[in-house]
Amino acid sequence: MSFTVKETIKEVKSALTLTADVWTSRATEAYLGVSCHFISEDWEMKTLNLATMPLEERHSGVNIMTWLEEVIAKYDILPTKIKAVVHDNGSNIVAAMRMLEEKHGWASVRCSGHTLQLIVNNALKEPSISRAVGAARHLPDQWVLLEELTQGLQPFQCATVYLSGQEYATASCLPQLVKGLQRSTQQTRFETGAGKAFLASAEKGINERWGCLNTISAEKENPIVLSASLDPRFRKLKFMGAEDGTRVQGTIEVLAIKEVRGSEIQGCERVQQQRVSVPGRGDKSALDNLLQSDTDSLSEEEDESHEDQKLQMARSEVQMYFAEPAIHKKDDPLRWWRENKGRFPVLSKLARSFLCIPATSTPSERIFSVAGNICSQKRASLSGDHVEMLTFLHFNPE
């Protein structure tokens, strides 16, 4: 079964994203759950369970880094093929990702579901809310507060459910959803002091935890913003200022040029390998070398001209993509790319790599939900290896 998963991953030409999380079973045994995400040739979101690894050592940042490297090595995944890792805000896994980002260039993406949970929990811990909610159990007039809190929590619940999806693009929606949450907390009007305190605390939490969400840097890619820019629903980048939007378009152009040059290098390497493998080529005479020299010079000029044309086409492709109107928010961006990949051959490769990034680490948490059922009270004595095998079979049935 693991061989089938390995072969499936081997056939994926685009980048992969991982989600990772640590869980403790009923028998107090710890596991590292790792899922792999990519977009198929038919532009469908795919998820594979790679590991529910039993952990016998301390969950330090160094150990988590080593375990993640062991998981990808098991499936013959090159580190350069990983675009990002989505994880929660736990200090150990954050430390591991800091090291992996420096070592392999993997983008570290914090789980937006966990961030939303922290924002809401902190807002509900406001003293005035705690006191009022306690009193509401006994005083009928405090039901007004409960109605306000229900209204105030609804946008957060809606965002959490949507971002936890697994079969559609989610990370690309995050900047616009955060903008919507900010707008909701600013425009909602409550009567009670506790309700107002909730809104103020929630708005503060959003600004503190996602204040740098749209930051653009020349030194470091922002996978969330780049994912949003390659989602045709959000390509106008209305969630950020015009100047930052121009910088994002410039970054996409740079990535498109890198993609073209990378393809050219791979093509040249294949041609050279074919030439080396052709039998019967002996040493050239002096005349052959003279004649070949002229031909090579001409060939090199033609190659350079051909590369320049491809680079210019890539630039034009980027300009045309961002000039077109955004599609409707309810439309499927993956379907749009499937239908338009012929018009945007370079950008479609970038889109396949960035749109597969999940907004949350929920896929790994789903692994633990199944693992929890496997490790039920009646089967709590199952070994870690058996738990991993049964979980793997559940998520990778084919």
Automatic annotation (TrEMBL):
Protein name: Zinc finger BED domain containing protein 1
Top-level taxon in the UniProt lineage: Eukaryota
Cellular component, GO, one term: nucleus
One Gene Ontology term of the molecular function aspect: protein dimerization activity
Swiss-Prot/TrEMBL GO biological process terms: regulation of transcription by RNA polymerase II
Sequence ranges assigned to domain HAT C-terminal dimerisation in this UniProt record: 317-396
PANTHER family for the chain: DNA REPLICATION-RELATED ELEMENT FACTOR, ISOFORM A (PTHR46169), INNER CENTROMERE PROTEIN A-LIKE ISOFORM X1-RELATED (PTHR46169:SF15)
